Amino acid sequence: MVSNCLSLGLHLNLHPHKHNQHSFSYLRSQTKAKLYQHVSTVSSHNTSSGSKFDSQHKSLKLYELGNHNLSSNRRVGNLCSTRSGDIRPRSMTGSEFNDLEYDESQFDPSLTNDELKPTTPSQRTFSWLDMSSLWIGLVVGVPTYYLAGSLVDLGMAWWQGIATVVTANLILLVPLVLTAQPGTMYGISFPVLARSSFGIRGAHIPTLLRALVGCGWYGIETWIGGEAIFLLLPGHIKNSAMSHTLPWLGTSPLEFSCFMVFWLAQLCIVWRGMDGIRKLEKYSAPILITLTSCLLVWSYIKAGGFGHMLSLSSKLTSAQFWTLFFPSLTANISFWATLALNIPDFSRFAKSQTDQIIGQAGLPVFMGLFTFVGVAVTSSTSIIFGRVISNPIELLGQIGGLATTVLAILGISLATLTTNIAANVVAPANALVNLNPKFFTFGRGAFLTAVIAIVCQPWRLLKSSESFVYTWLIGYSALIGPIGGILLADYYLIKKMKLNIGDLYSLSPSGDYYFTKGYNVAAIVALLAGIIPVVPGFLHKIGALSKVSNGFVVVYDNALFFSFIIAGFVYWIIMSRLRKKQSSLPSSSQPLL
């Protein structure tokens, strides 16, 4: 009889667990549910009496006509019937999101615009190949080139360095896929997902924290991209008067011009929105793979094989290896930790859960292969040039030749573009859109991010205190761990993967995610609980504290693990207790969480 009920086109509220049980939407949904149940009961006991069912059918049609204007925009969920006669939504895949129920006309204008609304089926264009291309574009870059090589420099064998990188990314893959799931399931971005745990207004806290890290890295990566162009310019141009440093600018006009060229190139791509980013990543992937393969083949031929690399053994004892391994593992997980946090910004465009999972499953493989290239090529330079050249830009300049220079500029620029745009533009832009949807669009948010990158003057930061900047940014990124712990604990342990889409865009005090004036105090307490234990070790790392307990050093060396687990656990405990307390109160007096 459920099929008969569905044929009437009734619009059932799929989220009956509202705090305000006297709201109109709640009463309307309950009335409809009872009518559904009544029809099922009548029809099951009166199969031979068509007149009774016909009268019920007409009554329901009249009811539906009376409510048509109120629910014409609703998206009706896939329903199934339990033995008790209740109508409930069945489990859905990402491709079935268009069947979820919500009314866009009821979204609060201060909480939404075209960038923040759930993606429509026509916007779900990311296949598994697109998701894989995204990660190839992110992985192939100058910083990744150094990862395993830096571990080899610290004493690890070549295979130990690569194995550490691959292990870190296998671990990262778990929260990456788990955080991406709600993005694909509900078509929502990271700022909107954050509203479900931090509150409608409290979501600004995690999104702006993520945005600040993105802005910092965006400026530095843009400067690196500009430096690549500068270093590969002909010698007579680099030695011209334009390359002399201006004290008031802090750099030379030529270097600044290269920076601005790269800055503008990125902005042109970002201004086209997520589709422009998708096309950049998709078409850049095969080019980057080809150029990387060419560099590997060149080093193999010139060095007469990889015998020198394969002969590199570990310089560490067993105890020394494990002492180095865990901090290195944490650092490599932190490498993509910020992107793992805002991955819903991309997975919301995936065609299905299968596409986002398969597309991201290649991350450990891509990281392993590219770090192998970094170790192999770097080790071969000691034979080819008589010295180790770990900087790929310097290496390409050393090779020389017009063709090499052109390909080098293309490859380095493309690698930096694909990494910087996806990793450091999308999150800050969406955070600004979430901050003020009426003013900011994705393009405006990206433009302001780019402007902030200039204001930060990354050339001054890198030249004056490079180690501090990287220590601060990496440490800051590790502090992002608590946000990830809270999001996953909330979505999987508290919400059980069920979100009320309408309330994610509502400022109503009776909304599921309004909490206390728009802030979830439990999430803020859990965030602080995850951050505070890391602070002493961080201050010691940057030299602000001369001496701290060895325990704090261990916590900082493994900051991502500790902060993630502590914050997630604290949040789960607080919310579980609050829910038990709420369920024990009379329904008429249940307070907000």
Automatic annotation (TrEMBL):
UniProt keyword list: Membrane, Transmembrane, Transmembrane helix
Membrane-spanning residues: 126-146, 158-178, 211-233, 253-271, 283-301, 321-343, 363-385, 405-427, 439-461, 473-493, 514-535, 555-574
Pfam families according to UniProt: Transp_cyt_pur
Transmembrane helix listed as a keyword: yes
Keyword check for Transmembrane: yes
Main location per the UniProt record: membrane
Membrane protein topology class: Multi-pass membrane protein
CDD domains membership: SLC-NCS1sbd_YbbW-like
Cellular localisation: Membrane
Family as reported in the entry's similarity comment: Belongs to the purine-cytosine permease (2.A.39) family.
Protein name: Purine-uracil permease NCS1
Organism name: Camelina sativa
